[in-house]
Amino acid sequence: MAFPRTTHEQWLLDHHPHAHSVVMSYLGIRRSLGFLAFLLPLVLGPFGFFVLGIEIQENMSSYYHTSLRDFFVGAICAMGIFLFCYHGYDSLENWTGNLASLSAMGVAFCPLDPNSDPLHQSTATRKRGFLLLFSRLRFTHK
Q1: Radius of gyration over every alpha carbon of the chain, rounded to an integer in angstroms
Q2: Tell me: the pLDDT tens digits for 38-70?
Q3: Where are the alpha helices (H) located in the chain, listed in sequence order?
Q4: Which residues contact 29 (CB under 8 A, 6 or more apart)?
Q5: Cα 34 from Cα 120, distance rounded (Å)
């Protein structure tokens, strides 16, 4: 399946002899990140409930305290790594992706405890905010 290329990607393909592998690695990062973001709530919710018998939790972070902890932490860490490896079109987009990456790691490694840990909540909020800003910068880029 062919995905449309951005102007920047097409310029790379036209002007750099090894650009095809660079563009393909960026496409791989984007696809992997999107796949994980799509798969995470499906595995935690319906799969956890119907296959593993785990009660539906109030939020995704609460799955840390279930048998799906390893999947939750692994998926969030992978998303953080993909965001860190992805380089944007400008420094603002790079910084936004890197901050979203660090916030994702904070969500994964500072789990939500039963007493509503403020560190987890603040990193989760920052992660959502940086991802929104990152998406706004990335998908409105002309």
Answers
A1: 17
A2: 899 999 999 999 999 999 988 888 888 899 999
A3: 7-15, 19-42, 48-50, 69-85, 91-109, 118-139
A4: 82, 85, 86
A5: 23
